[in-house]
């Protein structure tokens, strides 16, 4: 309860602020409608009007909640109007990109730690790669992979990988270099090979760093999947819902897709947090 109370307090504050902004941003349209009808709105009527507009500038929280309920509980999950249907498409691409990014990130981190030439030559390029906007390169990746007849889900995974591998590289390099110099010297006195030092010392020591970076990577992977769906919107996904909502000015649909993506990211981070606790406890490293 002590952990949940601060979170609920922040959520309540956000909801109150959200309602206030909805009234402020939607009020001009309410007054314009009243002026056309040659009527005058009281403050209460104006607030009521801002809470029920079909295409508000900022939908009220209850409008978004209603949209999420109608597109999840009241729709078949096979329906293209279902958020679960689109969420599943995004989740598949996210997990694929996360798997690609994790494998690539760990591979690069091991190479950087064990080979100085990789540290000197590749690391600067890895950092520089993150300065290129994903929105700029996503369409190019889609075109190239389409020419190679690569499946759309794999193309989305590749774009997700671009964002998710970086935190894994940084976290794992720091983790693999974290063992104390005395412990490394001790491994040398045992005549341990590089492989034995890796499996018995460096990898276990890097586990907390790995999980911390995986939590960032999975959220970045979701962002990459949503961005990829803006270019590959024909197969659906939360990104496609965002795009369709922007085309038709359906702000309620946009916000429901945004909150669904945020919820999906939170669930994946929580799942990784549980796995982290279980793993560290089993390794005797839990605090």
Which runs of at least 5 residues are low in confidence (pLDDT < 50)?
none
- What is the terminal-to-terminal distance? 20 Å
Largest beta-sheet details: none
Shape: elongated
Please give the count of helices.
Answer: 12
The whole-number mean of residue pLDDT values reads 90
Instruction: Evaluate the radius of gyration.
Output: 24 Å
Oligomer: single chain
Secondary structure category: mainly alpha
> What percentage of amino acids are in beta strands?
under 5%
Write down the secondary-structure element order. HHHHHHHHHHHH
- Can you count the beta strands? 0
Membrane topology: Multi-pass membrane protein
Organism: Tropicibacter oceani
Pfam families: BPD_transp_1
Domain ABC transmembrane type-1: 87-276
Descriptors:
287 residues, membrane, transmembrane, transport, MetI-like, ABC transporter permease
Q: In brief, what are we looking at here?
A:
Keywords: Cell membrane, Membrane, Transmembrane, Transmembrane helix, Transport. The protein has 287 residues and is mainly α. It is 78% helix and 0% strand.
Chart the SSEs and their pairings.
Elements (H helix, E strand, L loop, with lengths): L3 H33 L6 H8 L10 H10 L12 H32 L1 H6 L1 H7 L4 H14 L4 H25 L4 H9 L4 H38 L6 H10 L3 H32 L5
Helix pairs in contact: 1-2, 3-12, 4-8, 4-10, 4-11, 7-8, 7-10, 8-10, 10-11, 10-12, 11-12
């Amino acid at each position: 309860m002590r952990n949940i109370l601060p979170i609920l307090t922040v959520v309540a504050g956000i909801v109150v602020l959200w309602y206030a902004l909805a009234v402020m941003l939607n009020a001009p349209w309410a007054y314009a409608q009243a002026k056309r009808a040659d009527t005058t709105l009281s403050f209460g009527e104006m607030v009521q009007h801002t809470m029920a507009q079909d295409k508000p500038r900022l939908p009220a929280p209850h409008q978004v909640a209603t949209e999420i309920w109608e597109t999840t509980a009241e729709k078949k999950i096979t329906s293209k109007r279902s958020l679960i249907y689109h969420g599943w498409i995004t989740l598949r691409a996210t997990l694929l990109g996360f798997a690609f990014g994790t494998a690539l990130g760990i591979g690069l981190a091991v190479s950087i730690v064990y080979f100085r030439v990789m540290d000197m030559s590749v690391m600067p390029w890895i950092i520089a790669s993150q300065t290129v906007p994903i929105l700029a390169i996503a369409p190019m990746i889609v075109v190239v992979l389409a020419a190679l007849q690569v499946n759309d889900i794999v193309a989305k995974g590749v774009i997700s990988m671009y964002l998710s591998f970086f935190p894994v590289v940084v976290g794992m390099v720091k983790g693999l270099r974290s063992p104390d110099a005395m412990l490394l010297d001790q491994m040398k006195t045992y005549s341990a090979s590089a492989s034995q030092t890796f499996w018995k010392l460096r990898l276990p020591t890097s586990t907390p760093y790995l999980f911390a970076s995986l939590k960032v990577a999975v959220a970045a992977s979701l962002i990459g999947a949503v961005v990829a769906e803006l270019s590959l919107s024909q197969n659906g996904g939360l990104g496609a819902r965002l795009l369709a909502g922007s085309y038709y000015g359906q702000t309620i649909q946009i916000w429901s897709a945004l909150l669904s993506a945020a919820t999906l990211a939170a669930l994946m981070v929580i799942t990784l947090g549980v796995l982290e606790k279980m793993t560290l406890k089993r390794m005797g490293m839990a605090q």
